[in-house]
Amino acid sequence: MAEGLIAAIVVFVLASFVGFEVINKVPPTLHTPLMSGSNAISGIAIVGALLIAGPKEWNLTEIFGLIAVVFAMINVVGGFLVTDRMLQMFKKKEAKV
Amino acid sequence: MSDFLPSTIQISYLVAATLFILGLKQMSSPATARQGNLLGAVGMLIAIVATLLDQQVVNYETIAVGIILGSIIGTVMAQKVEMTAMPQMVGLLNGFGGAASMLVAMGEFWRYLYIPESLPVDSNIVVLLGVLIGGITLTGSLVAFAKLQELMTGAPITFPLQQPVNAFLFLGFLAGSGYLLVYPEDPKVFLVLVALSLILGVMFVIPIGGGDMPVVISLLNSYSGIAAAVAGFIVMNNMLIIAGALVGASGIILTQIMCKAMNRSLLNVLFAAFGTGGGTSAGSGSNIEKVVRSIDPEESAMMLGYARSVVIVPGYGMAVAQAQHAVRELADQLDRLGVEVKYAIHPVAGRMPGHMNVLLAEANVPYPQLYDMDDVNPLFEQTDVALVIGANDVVNPAARHDSGSPIYGMPILDVDRAKHTIVIKRGMSTGFAGVDNELFYKDKTMMLFGSAKDVVAKLVSEVKQL
């Protein structure tokens, strides 16, 4: 388990560096969509929720897992949709009438 | 064959993580951003489907109910929300993410209560970390939401011994955690820790003023990413860790950008209870005759119509008045008269970095006309008229020279360097920071009082007649 934990920490640190590199280049214009888009990605906790809610036995773990599934889905679906709603408005000049 | 499914799942996770990174990368240009967001969503779909293939996951009917319920709520929220309410929307969604991570940690804790094996120390640490970060994210985001939605006062809430009390709560959490590491089978202590983390989230956000809420939301966004990564440590899933780390990093970068734009350190934002009262900070030294020149829409229209270059500085006041469509119409009319129109966007215009850009995009303003602060500031000296609509603190010249002002050192838009400045404002009230604005008393500044929407509509009809 400890070895697995260390490997996981390695992945975490490297991914953080990738995150810094990728996001540093985003212009201020897009910061709000970026925030809501990355917020949607943080809904990835859905995977943890699904695994916890997975087994078919009724107990507290299940119930926590299921509530977590609902919350995480709101975060994911709401986040991606609202980001898309914002981004579809960013246009260059529309054709002059 | 028995290896086939697990490796398929792992490879799907890798694909999902890659799509998240590519998606975020495409977010760096308005032209590809929408596609980038789509890539992220596809990555998420792949991750969810792959997880459902996992042999641990057999509880399909109930899970389907959870997924459908969450999707419906999420869809409705995303469709209904006003663009001006975007910061609190992100805050609220963020709170749900934190709640999910916390519940995953709680579920894992309870799972070990049902089996003879006791929770190993390393998993236990990760579970407690998940409870702490998830709980703070949940209640902190809810308080931030309530402040921005004006369900509660936006002013900082402080009380004596606040910091010691918070420190005490935090130490209580640490002590309880220490106890649980030794006796991991005590659900009562665990529940106390859950409660403590929820209280900490509230305590963390209430002393922070409404104007600083976007910084808090961005920081909490970063926490919810870290919380997701911690959930990844709990269920030992690399993709969760990668995605969580990406979000954690992005939240921290945005937080830094915002603090820099306000020239404050993060510590100052979090602990200084900024913007406490009205008036305390109004520069007492310079009370020499404060004369305000006001102007009517007709004359303003003449100035704008016969200018060669106009820079429009929109602020949150424009957004709440829903004046962005009228503003664009004004810009169109000026364009027709051959006036060169630019928009100057301060990094914290609106209530979140980039919020103003979204609002103007909603009004079909083409994004190449929007200029960032650093690009537009050198242009003000050659600008005939700077038109400030509902912005206040971000155009206050005191930030440049008055070291006694609370906003001293904050980078501002140099509208006072334009040949003329017209300020559209409801009255003489102060902005978020509670600071008087000396721009309004300058010789070159003319105040056009009224609600942004009405005034701009009048300007449009006047300019049309030119």
Architecture overview:
The complex is a heterodimer of chains A (97) and B (466). Chain A is mainly alpha-helical and 97 residues long. Chain A has helices at residues 2-24, 31-42, 45-53, 60-87. In chain A, α3 packs antiparallel against α4 (60-87). The longest helix of chain A has 28 residues, at 60-87. Chain A starts with a helix and ends in a 10-residue tail after the last helix. Chain B is an alpha/beta fold and 466 residues long. Chain B has 17 helices and six strands. Chain B has a six-stranded parallel sheet. In chain B, α4 packs antiparallel against α5 (121-148) and α8 (213-235) runs antiparallel to α9 (238-261). At the A-B interface, α1, α2, α3 and α4 of A face α1, α2, α3, α4 and α5 of B.
Largest interface: A-B, 84 and 115 residues
Shape, per Cα inertia axes of chain B: elongated
Radius of gyration of chain A: 19 Å
Distance between the termini of chain B: 79 Å
In round numbers, the mean pLDDT of chain B is 86
Shape of chain A: flat
Helix content of chain A: over 70%
Please give the share of residues in helix of chain B.
55-70%
Report the portion of residues of chain B in β strands.
5-15%
Separate helix tally of chain B: 17
Runs of chain B in which pLDDT lies below 50 for 5 or more consecutive residues are 275-288
The radius of gyration computed from the alpha-carbon positions of chain B, rounded to a whole number of angstroms, is 26 Å
Mean pLDDT of chain A: 86
Structural class of chain A: mainly alpha
Q: Given the helix and strand composition of chain B, which structural class is it?
A: alpha/beta
The fraction of residues in strands of chain A falls at: under 5%
User: What is the succession of H and E elements of chain B?
Assistant: HHHHHHHHHHHEHHEHEHEHEEH
The strand count of chain B comes to: 6
Q: Report, as a whole number of angstroms, the end-to-end distance of chain A.
A: 66 Å
